[in-house]
Design a protein that fits this description.
This protein is mainly α and 140 residues long. It has one domain. It has 6 helices and no strands. It is globular, with a radius of gyration of 18 Å.
């Protein structure tokens, strides 16, 4: 119960942060990517703010022997940069640049009930499902 409540509170805080910073507004993100036009630095300020908060906390977390709600830390084991990672990053970047949304802000923006947002999230979920199906075939 404690773990679920913490996840809910963290997700709510994340969603509120996205809303307050207007990162659920695709024009903000597209404006950030428009470096040759009318550039909007809002996303840069959001990223810098996140780093200012996260970096000191990562130092504190490294000193802990165990996380609060698990028996052990779950860190990535794959460290190699391969074609799959690069392809995924390129596809993610293209989609992010075209739509102005990535998964977190898109899910948060669902509360707007915008047809465009609902369509984007539907396409995103379909793409995730297709990717998992493709990966299952490759792993056989």
């Amino acid at each position: 119960m404690k773990k679920a409540l913490t996840a809910y509170l963290c997700g709510t805080l994340f969603g509120l942060g996205l809303n307050v910073s207007e990162m659920i507004n695709p024009t903000r993100v597209i404006g950030f990517l428009d470096v040759a036009g009318v550039w909007d630095p809002t996303l840069l300020l959001v990223m810098v703010s996140a780093l200012v908060i996260a970096l000191p906390l990562f130092s504190l977390i490294k000193q802990c022997t165990q996380p609060f709600f698990s028996d052990h830390f779950m860190l990535p084991t794959k460290t190699r940069i391969d074609l799959r990672l690069i392809t995924g990053a390129i596809l993610f970047g293209i989609g992010w640049g075209m739509a102005g949304l990535c998964p977190g802000p898109a899910i948060t923006a669902l509360v707007s009930l915008s047809v465009e947002i609902i369509g984007f999230v539907t396409a995103m979920l379909l793409g995730m499902w297709l990717s998992m199906q493709w990966q299952k075939r490759i792993d056989r």
